Amino acid sequence: AGDPTPMTLAIGREVRGRITANDPLIDNDADSIVESGRPYHLYALSGAAGQTVRLALDSNEFDPVIDVGSMSPLGYSVAMTNDDGGGEGDGLNSRLNITFRTAGTVIVRVSPLGNDTGRYTLEATNVR
């Protein structure tokens, strides 16, 4: 059926979502057993050339993973990913800084590490 149409992610606004068992599933066939069968949501994020944006994905109900990439004729193509933020206090939540080389739109994919479901918050903020 293909990937769903991405929802808009505006810089400076928090999005609240819920991953359910009815959401589309990541299908990587033979590439990665870890990624197969994970439900996901897609968001479109636009930025200006040189702009750096911090993505923060939090959930108390599942281990969140955030991917940034683009759509290709073969489907979603991941350019960057983050599972656990890596900073003090991030815990299992995901953090990712992206810098736009040129003005344009990237596709942000939100998913659990496994096939869990639950609520999450996603926020994009300018990095100064």
Helix % is under 10%
Element-level helix/strand string:
EEEEEEEEE
Q: Can you count the helices?
A: 0
Largest sheet: 5 strands, mixed
- Portion in beta strands: over 45%
Broad structural category: mainly beta
Low-confidence stretches: none
Q: How would the global form be characterised?
A: globular
| CA radius of gyration | 14 Å
End-to-end distance, in Å?
A: 40 Å
Q: What's the rounded overall pLDDT mean?
A: 88
The spatial strand order of the largest sheet comes to 1-3-8-5-6
Number of strands: 9
Please, could you describe this protein's structure?
This protein has 128 residues and is mainly β. Helix content is 0%, strand content 49%. The protein is built from no helices and nine strands. The strands form two sheets. It has a five-stranded mixed beta sheet, with no helix packed on it. The chain has a four-stranded antiparallel beta sheet with strand order 2-9-4-7, with no helix packed on it. A hairpin with a 2-residue loop joins β5 and β6. The mean pLDDT is 88.
Question: Main traits of this protein?
Answer:
128 residues; mainly beta; five-stranded mixed sheet; four-stranded antiparallel sheet; 9 strands; globular
